[in-house]
Amino acid sequence: MAVRVFEGKDHAAAYLQYRIAPDELITLLQRLTHQFNLAVDVGCGSGQGTILLAPYFTKVVGTDVSPAQLEMALANSSPPNVSYRECPAEELPFASGEVDLVMAIAAAHWFDRKRFLLEADRVLRPGGCLALLSYTMDFELEYGGVSNTALNDICEECIVVYNHSLS
User: pLDDT (tens digit, 9 = 90+) per residue, 125-161?
Assistant: First the structure.
C-alpha cells in the first residue's frame, strides 16, 4: 500500500535540509549507461537526486505525490532540462516504452510494490533501466512470473558490484 508522508511544507523543508544525496548511485549509473533521452526520478521529494541526473539525460522528470515536496524542488535551482510532475508512483504520466531510466531513491519502500513494478515495466523502453536505492535491503522483490529468488539474486549481485565499486 502506498503511504503519503513528508507532504506538508515543514516536512518538505526538513527533507530538503537533511536527506543524503545519492552521489554514489549517480556515479554507478554513469558507468553503466550512456547519454539517454528521458530519466524519471519517482518519489523525487525535493529533487536532490533528480538534478544529479541532468548532465546524463536530455530530459529529467521528478515525480512525487506531494505538492509541498515539489514546491521545494521548484524553489531550488534546476538545470533547464529538469522538470517536475505531481503523480503517484503507480501512475506515471509517460507513454509505454518512453522512459530510459526509472529511478527511486529512498522512496520505493513507500510504493505499492506490485503496481509500481508493473508501471515501471510499462514506461521503460526495451533495454531501459530500473534503479532503486534504499537504506535497507530488508524486503523481497517480486514481479509477475519471474521467480522471487532470481530477482533477489540479481539485486544482491548489484549490491556486491556497487560495494566493490566503492572500495
Answer: 998 888 887 765 555 666 666 666 776 676 666 554 4
Whether 141 maps to a domain, the answer reads no
Domain CATH number, residue 98: 3.40.50.150
**Cα–Cα distance between 19 and 145 in angstroms, integer?**
35
Which residue is it, cell 536527506? 19
Encoded amino acid at 30, one letter = Q
Instruction: Establish if 144 belongs to a structural domain.
Output: no
Q: Tell me the per-residue pLDDT of 2-23, one tens digit each, with 9 for 90 and over.
A: 445 556 666 566 655 555 555 6
Q: Is residue 95 part of a domain?
A: yes
Q: Which residues of 95-105 are buried (b: 16+ CB within 10 A; e: fewer)?
A: eeebbbbbbbb
- Could you give the C-alpha distances from 157 to 29, 154, 163, in angstroms and in order? 15, 5, 10
Which pTM does this prediction carry? 0.70
